[in-house]
UniProtKB/TrEMBL annotation:
Its EC number is 2.7.10.2. Residues 13-260 form the Protein kinase domain. PANTHER family: SERINE/THREONINE-PROTEIN KINASE TNNI3K-RELATED (PTHR44329). It comes from the Eukaryota. This is Tyrosine protein kinase Lyn, putative. It is an enzyme of class 2 (transferase). GO terms for molecular function: ATP binding; non-membrane spanning protein tyrosine kinase activity; protein serine/threonine kinase activity. Pfam families: PK_Tyr_Ser-Thr. It comes from Entamoeba dispar (strain ATCC PRA-260 / SAW760).
Amino acid sequence: MFRLNERQWNQIKKDLKFVSKGAQGEVFKGKLLNKEVAIKKFKHEDDFVKEVECINNCACEFIVSIFGITPTPEAIFLDWFPYDLENYIIENQLTLNESKVLLSDISKGLAYIHRVGYIHLDIRPKNILIRNQRAVICDFGMSIIDQPPYNHNRAVDCWVAPEIVFGKEVSTKTDIYSLGLVIWFVCESKGTDPFPKTTTESMIKAAFQCKERPRWNAPKIEELKKIHDITKKCWRDEMESRPTARMIIDLFNEIKEKTL
């Protein structure tokens, strides 16, 4: 991992292009050693330290890579990806095989996160990056270590599991619920949020109290039926009855190539 000196960082800052803004800070596009990179600037040093630690501990081909850091705990330089999953799905019509490859990559990344002892807690299309039809997981701002006490500050939105909505204890299976939503997003929704008309925390809570789940039309081919069935298992209220990421990987390995 490359550590910039003050002069290098000051030079790079002159040519940053704004990309997005989040709770932890802002993301820019820039160059490091003539390579295009995403530059994530943090508001707080603790968030910087946590992100670097989590990404390094979870390092594998399905997790975004850190190329460098600033001389003070201010920003990290990440591999640049032209799409997040949300934009990619909206702009591209995927075959079943292309969808399978992306979802398998995401499942493998999540399986590795769980294997090294973390819960991500923010699996959603915006936190999955795409390049050359392959996917990696990013943004560990909400992640926690997989051991008690399971303290977290994950806000309620349409990508979270029921246990977060109702303030219960979380586990790796909390990520599996969100992974099920991502699978639905890729294979069925084609770019729509799980509950597009449910915009407030109270509305989301009411939807979960009624045990609502995203609408999925009856699949017409056997391969999609298998994906549909395991997604329904991801959405179970009881955490421990949800599948593991490894089980989901095995499913995608079995599916034959067909067009959605």
